[in-house]
UniProtKB/TrEMBL annotation:
One of its GO terms (molecular function) is oxidoreductase activity, acting on NAD(P)H as acceptor. Residues 260-285 are annotated as: Disordered. Belongs to the aldo/keto reductase family. The keyword Membrane applies. Residues 274-285 have a biased composition (Low complexity). It comes from Tetrapyrgos nigripes. InterPro entries: AKR, AKR3C2/3, Aldo/ket_reductase_CS, NAD(P)_OxRdtase_dom_sf, NADP_OxRdtase_dom. Residues 26-186 form the NADP-dependent oxidoreductase domain. This is NADP-dependent oxidoreductase domain-containing protein. PANTHER family: 2,5-DIKETO-D-GLUCONIC ACID REDUCTASE, NADP-DEPENDENT OXIDOREDUCTASE DOMAIN-CONTAINING PROTEIN. Keywords: Membrane, NADP, Oxidoreductase, Transmembrane, Transmembrane helix.
């Protein structure tokens, strides 16, 4: 199943992501599992340091390039042309299907960056171009100079942040920009027992499907492409089975009930750590610091990957595959039976850098408070 993009290309409606816990880890085995399970859309990024492993998995799969849809994102403050060419080399391909600016602060100038993106598309290095984590103000700034509209805006989207994200979704739909959604499983993986559990579970019981599939149907109802991940082949099949469900499986009343339940945000609790990919990061207190402080803050806010647990995008717990949960029982989590992924040298270096930048970030924040 795919959706048409505004440039004439099509995008598969569900992608296997190599971010979240996979950052800086060897993901070859899990990308291979995803391809074997039926995923054709792979999502990666220079910042994740997973591109070489994605490339290896593609090569070993024997699949034809035309049968795959590859998305990658630019590196932090790396010239876009260099970033894309480095990504192509690591992936072992001549072009990507979709190249995204990972975040507005990943480039020094939004307008000039988009002009360069248009050149990369014209040269055929990226068939489609887009952005990630852009708010309406960033999209409007870019659109003032755009000769080619962005095909995609990838954002965090789940029932608990839908009200916050709705202006972005509305703007994208008005301008023919497809929304991609990551972190959609937060109600199950990060906030179990929250208010959206009741309408989600009720819909799951009516349809005879899992709560995870209900959430993915909800994402589809918002017109968005799903970006998710797992290390379990069984769950990969569960995710892909959503393609076999009618797009109108959820009633208008069920969708409205989920929207209403999530409107006041998630239940109290620690929740997920801030992620620089997350649009909510842009409205956090750290966003109002200097550019250097923002970068340090974004790096220091990344949690160390937990190799012992299997996850959905941007969360660090696993959803147990069970028939159906009751209205009063949150979906349980359990440690993954899979062996931990191998931590690469680059990963070790990045973890050390995160520790250093965390300390520097605290110092900068304290200096700012004192001043």
């Amino acid at each position: 199943m795919s959706l048409p993009l505004n440039d004439g290309h099509n995008i598969p409606t569900i992608a296997f992501g190599t971010g979240s816990k996979w950052k800086w880890h060897d993901v070859t085995t899990y990308v291979q599992l995803a391809l074997e399970s039926g995923f054709s859309h792979l999502d990666t990024a220079a910042f994740y340091e997973t591109e070489p492993f994605v490339g290896r998995a593609i090569k070993e799969s024997g699949l034809a390039r035309k049968d795959l849809f590859l998305t990658t994102k630019c590196g932090l403050m790396i010239p876009l042309r260099k970033s894309l060419k480095d990504s192509l080399e690591k992936l072992g391909v001549e072009y990507v299907d979709l190249f995204l600016i990972h975040n507005h602060f990943f480039v020094p100038d939004i307008k000039e960056a988009w002009k360069e993106m248009e050149k990369l598309k014209e040269e055929g290095l990226a068939r489609s171009i887009g952005v990630s984590n852009y708010e309406v103000k960033h999209l409007k700034q870019m659109m003032r100079v755009a000769k080619v509209k962005p095909a995609v805006n990838q954002i965090s989207l789940n029932p608990y942040n839908y009200a916050e994200m709705k202006p972005i979704i509305d703007y994208c739909q008005e301008n023919g920009i497809v929304v991609e959604a990551y972190s959609s499983l937060a109600p199950i993986t990060t906030y179990p027992g929250g208010p959206v559990d009741i309408p989600i579970t009720a819909a799951a019981l009516r349809l005879g499907i899992t709560p995870t599939q209900v959430i993915f149907l909800w994402v589809r109802a918002k017109g968005a492409v799903i970006v998710t991940t797992t290390s379990s082949k069984e769950r990969m099949k569960e995710y892909l089975a959503v393609n076999d469900l009618p797009p109108t499986s959820l009633t208008h009343e069920e969708i409205a009930a989920i929207d209403h339940a999530g409107a006041n945000g998630p239940p109290p609790g620690p929740g997920p750590s801030s992620q620089p990919e997350s649009t909510s990061f842009l409205s956090s207190s750290s966003f109002h610091l200097s550019p250097l402080s923002r970068i340090l803050s974004s790096l220091s806010s990344r949690p160390s990957p937990s190799p012992s647990k299997d996850v959905g995008v941007d969360v660090y717990v696993d959803v147990e595959k069970s028939p159906l949960v009751t209205l009063t029982t949150p979906t349980p989590c359990h440690p993954s039976p899979h062996p931990p992924t191998k931590l690469t040298l680059v990963g070790v270096i990045n973890i050390l850098l995160v520790s250093i930048t965390f300390i520097l970030g605290i110092v900068l924040v304290l200096m700012g408070l004192l001043c």
